[in-house]
């Protein structure tokens, strides 16, 4: 299993923070969180990251090696990724960008227009 290295987590976190409208925060003591308009789209822990998946992709993704439903957020269709065994770093970047889009869709129209 190819566990996510701290440098990979930092790279993915930096990618998420560079997306338009993204803001960074630390919640729950040590979890690094990236949001848009106050809506989270990435949670990065010490050895895993979590993000929202489209409803139709949630079950297929959560069954892959190194991927599972995210604790506390699975009801909202979030997945937790602990390794690059099934998803490459490019796949993770695409997933993070899609998670941002899903969060953006939940914002009021005026806010969405500013970051679309």
Oligomer: single chain
Low-confidence stretches: none
Number of domains: 1
Q: Can you tell me the CATH class?
A: Alpha Beta
Strand arrangement within the widest β-sheet reads: 1-2-3-4-6-5
| Shape descriptor | globular
**Strand portion:** 25-35%
Q: Please bin the fraction of helical residues.
A: 25-40%
User: Cα-atom Rg, whole angstroms?
Assistant: 13 Å
Query: What is the rounded distance between the termini?
Result: 37 Å
The biggest beta sheet is recorded as: 6 strands, antiparallel
Number of helices: 4
Keywords: DNA-binding
Protein name: MmcQ/YjbR family DNA-binding protein
InterPro entries: YjbR, YjbR-like_sf, YjbR/MT2646/Rv2570-like
GO molecular function, one term: DNA binding
Description:
With 116 residues, the chain is an alpha+beta fold. The chain has one domain: Aspartate Aminotransferase, domain 1. Helices cover 39% and strands 25% of the residues. It has 4 helices and 6 strands, in the order H-E-E-E-E-H-E-E-H-H. The chain has helices spanning 6-18, 55-62, 89-105, 109-115, and strands spanning 22-27, 31-36, 39-44, 49-52, 67-69, 78-81. A 6-stranded antiparallel beta sheet has the order 1-2-3-4-6-5. A hairpin with an 8-residue loop joins strand 5 and strand 6 (78-81). Helix 1 (6-18) packs parallel to helix 3 (89-105). The longest helix has 17 residues, at 89-105. The chain is globular, with a radius of gyration of 13 Å. The mean pLDDT is 90. This is MmcQ/YjbR family DNA-binding protein. Keywords: DNA-binding. InterPro entries: YjbR (IPR007351), YjbR-like_sf (IPR038056), YjbR/MT2646/Rv2570-like (IPR058532).
């Amino acid at each position: 299993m190819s566990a996510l290295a701290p440098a990979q987590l930092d790279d993915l976190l930096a990618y998420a923070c560079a997306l338009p409208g993204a803001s960074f925060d630390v919640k729950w003591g040590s979890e690094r969180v990236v949001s848009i308009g106050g809506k989270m789209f990435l949670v990065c822990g010490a050895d895993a990251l979590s993000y929202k998946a489209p409803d139709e992709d949630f079950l297929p993704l959560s069954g892959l090696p190194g991927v599972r439903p995210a604790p506390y957020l699975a009801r909202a269709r979030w997945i937790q990724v602990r390794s690059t065994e099934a998803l490459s770093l490019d796949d993770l970047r695409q997933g993070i960008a899609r998670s941002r889009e899903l969060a953006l869709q939940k914002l009021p129209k005026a806010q969405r227009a500013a970051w679309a």
